[in-house]
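Dear support,

Our group has been running a series of protein-ligand predictions, and this particular one with beta-D-ribofuranose is the one our PI (initials K.S.) wants archived with full inputs and outputs. We had some confusion internally about which version of the output was final, so please treat the block below as the authoritative record. The input we submitted was:
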Amino acid sequence: MPHPIIIDTDPGVDDAQAIAIALLHPEIDLLGLTTTYGNVDVETATHNALLLSELAGKDIPVAQGAAAPLVKARHPAPVHIHGTNGLGDMELPAVKGKAEARSAAQFIVDTVNQRPGEITLVSVGPVGNLAAALQLDPSMVDKVKQVVTMGGSIREGGNVTPVAEANMFNDPHAASRVLTAGWPLTLVGLDVTHRCVLTQAHMDRIEASHGMLGQVLAGSYAFYRDFYREFLGIDGCCPHDSCALAWLLRPELFTTARGHLGVVTSGDAEGQTIFAPEGRGFIEPRWSGTPLVDVCLETDGDAVSQWIADSLA
Ligand code: BDR
Ligand code: CA
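Confirmed final output from the archive:
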């Protein structure tokens, strides 16, 4: 049976790769895409979600959500990483479809309530929509099957600050609510996504396989790769968001640990995720008060990158 999932996303070059996997993979039943600001503004995120779905020949509901963080001011979009249009500033075909009239949070609540215990929420952007869904209907905690969140960092350090990963930094207040809500949650953070590199050779196979969708993935990859080469000295790019799907479908490629998570919401460490392993005593109990979750600590990066390429090619 394929996994019924909703992806909450800010596409975004690596989001587009993850969305394409979800659209194409026979083990995934993509019930909807919910959009948030992050890599781009929310209207652009919605446009790109609709476009990717249409390029794959699918009619997937797209519901627009958070335009800004819950509390802090919105940080400018990282146009040097994803381009102004989120897809590497490629010229893009026109979109025919329209977003749902419902908000992203309402879409999540309605869809999960129709199939309690069955649906996995995969978040690959700032998590304001998940926080809003929890606020609309706190019973989501017991009704989702699981939550897989690409974000955070346990031992790896940050990518937008010395200690914070982008999705957590973009809305630390929402992240704090979502990561401590008490639902079954796995954090797929930089500890594993930084072990994975999607290379030009992978992308050549992907481009050859999927017509216009392959061209959009390859063209946006080329822009994203320039950033990785210039700023991180990597020849290729980290497919952060696809790693959340790799964990869902191929968990044996990852090592996880169980414990308590917190998110720093202000000061120099804002957006930092703090992990206290289950059963480990510290000088005070305050780091171990939140509900237990799972975090990814290690992965076979080559195997995950290969799985991503195979899923898209
Ligand atoms: C995350 O931040 C975004 O820029 C990427 O799409 C990914 O979701 C990586 O830190
Ligand atoms: Ca993303």
